[in-house]
Design brief:
The complex is a heterodimer. By secondary structure, chain A is α/β, with parallel strands linked by helices. Helices cover 43% and strands 14% of the residues of chain A. Chain A has a 7-stranded parallel sheet with strand order 3-2-1-4-5-6-7, sandwiched between helices. Chain A is globular, with a radius of gyration of 17 Å. In chain A, 53% of the residues are buried. By secondary structure, chain B is an alpha/beta fold. Chain B has a single domain (9-241), classed as Rossmann fold (3-Layer(aba) Sandwich), CATH 3.40.50. In chain B, helix 4 packs parallel to helix 5. Classes of the chains: A alpha/beta, B alpha/beta.
């Protein structure tokens, strides 16, 4: 018996990293999952890796037409969304003095605008008592050099979860944030331009994590399963840090 | 029934009633052997032990006065001796007091801090001698440790704020040993201490986004998650189980 038997789930950015690991866990726990991603080939490979009870829908969360197509497909195939993991997003290291309007818009469009409209456009398919999980980051609670725009988008998501918990309280929809610390993902490796730089980033992060290591995507996935399942039935509007203690202490 | 805690030994302080009893049963349902402590309810403690044993795991109840740090130290060591190990410590026992500032005496304040803070510190100090890599320390705080929704709880809130600070300090110290330390902060939960049908209930319920009191089993489910291997990268965290009071 799984923790999500019979549930229909949507995972945006489900083609790699934390999103893919979570989609796999959802299916292992008995859910049917829709995954999205921008790149068709990678998305199809992810769907093959998940292997069963999955539908892949190509799309960019920053594009509202893509979101309409996504939820039209979900409506046709399953008719509802019991669990929504708004995970898609990303960031790039840019020193404050070099931040451009293009960098700002790109980051806020995918992380903030994309998340808002992912959740809003899902609502007609979301039954009362459903679970919405936003993928935040410890970046929303810490000052990280050359990362201010990304950090601000993640702080915005934490704020969204507070407001939406109240906005949606009549429908008993639980909105929570999972906030990863440093995790071995393509997003982490993508921050470095070469192996030496990546080794430096890894060493720096490891030293600042009380548990003394970088986390795995599956460790985030398991926390998302908790927030998606009945095990968290009285948990609403929280930010659950899964960061080895990095931003806690 | 699951098996995520099979082979583990857990101690739940104040495990004879309310949230503690629900936690003890939930950990046992995941395969853990469970010890509980109690002060004044031996019959209720025995009922919990009997119910846990039907799940096919070992259980035992220990009388220990939480106001006595020596008794708490002995409790932890006796549990570790009886079960040959200790993997999970749930610091659940606590006393609640509502009184406007100035209305309680020094002895009452001392008792609040003795049970809610000093006993927790004594239990963790003793457990440190036994907890292996992968071990779990879970404190049961309260959302009033983070915010004052109503007046009259400042003394109690201060004890729970201390627990939250201890959680962070211990997470730092136990991290290198691979032991996680977390703080679960319940909101209004339907127990003998604060029944959903009680005088305070209408006041508290209006703060809850989900519009109701929580059940002890809902706190237990969150504690069980943090105790399990699934929560291996979570430490130093505070998890509110409050239906959205602090959203």
């Amino acid at each position: 018996m799984g923790k999500l038997d019979g549930k229909v789930a949507v995972v945006t950015g489900g083609n790699s990293g934390i999103g893919l690991a979570t989609a796999k866990r959802f299916v292992d726990e008995g859910a049917y999952v829709f995954i999205t991603g921008r790149r068709q080939a990678e998305l199809e490979a992810a769907a093959r890796e998940i292997g069963r009870n999955v539908t892949a829908v190509r799309g960019d969360v920053a594009n509202l037409d893509d979101l309409d197509r996504l939820f039209a497909t979900v409506k046709d195939v399953k008719g509802r969304v019991d669990v929504l993991f708004a995970n898609a997003g990303g960031g790039e290291l840019v020193p404050f003095g070099s931040v451009t309007e293009e960098h700002f818009d790109k980051t806020f469009n995918s992380n903030v605008k994309g998340t808002l409209f992912t959740v809003q456009k899902a609502l007609p398919l979301v039954p009362d008592g459903a679970a919405v999980i936003l993928n935040g980051s410890i970046a929303g609670s810490k000052g990280m050099a050359a990362f201010s725009v990304y950090n601000a988008t993640k702080a915005a998501l934490r704020s969204f979860a507070r407001s939406w918990t109240v906005d949606l309280k009549e429908r008993k929809i639980r909105v929570n944030v999972v906030s990863p610390g440093p995790i071995e993902t393509p997003g982490l490796t993508g921050l470095a331009s070469n192996d030496e730089e990546l080794a430096q980033i890894r060493a720096g992060l490891t030293a600042s994590v009380p548990l003394g290591r970088i986390g795995t995507p599956d460790e985030i996935a398991k926390a998302v399963v908790f927030l998606a399942s009945d095990d968290s039935s009285f948990v609403a509007g929280v930010e659950l840090f899964v960061d080895g203690g990095m931003a806690q202490i | 029934m699951g098996n995520s805690l099979t082979g583990k030994v857990a101690l739940v302080t104040g495990g004879s009633r309310g949230i503690g009893a629900a936690i003890a049963k939930a950990l046992a349902a995941e395969g853990a052997d469970v010890a509980i402590s109690y002060v004044s309810s031996p019959d209720k403690a025995q009922e919990v032990v009997t119910e846990i044993e039907t799940k096919g795991v070992r259980a035992a109840a220990f009388k220990a006065d939480q106001a006595d740090v020596a008794a708490v130290d002995s409790l932890v060591r006796e549990v570790a001796k009886k079960f040959d190990r200790l993997d999970i410590l749930i610091n659940n026992a606590g006393v609640f007091l509502a009184a406007p500032t100035g209305a309680s005496d020094a002895a009452t304040l001392d008792r609040l801090f003795a049970v809610n803070v000093s006993a927790v510190a004594a239990a963790v100090k003793a457990a440190s001698d036994y907890l292996p890599e992968g071990g779990r320390l879970i404190n049961i705080g309260s959302i009033v440790g983070s915010g004052a929704m109503v007046g009259g709880l400042a003394d109690y809130a201060a004890t729970k704020g201390a627990v939250a600070a201890y959680t962070r300090g211990w997470a730092r110290e136990f991290g290198p040993r691979g032991i996680t330390v977390n703080n679960v902060q319940p909101g209004p939960i339907d127990t003998d201490m604060n029944p959903a049908s009680g005088d305070f209930a209408p006041t508290f319920t209006k703060y809850v986004a989900l519009g109701r009191y929580g059940k002890p089993e809902e706190v237990a489910a969150a504690v069980t998650f943090l105790a399990s291997p699934a929560a291996s990268f979570i430490t130093g965290a505070t998890l509110d189980v409050d239906g959205g009071v602090r959203a």
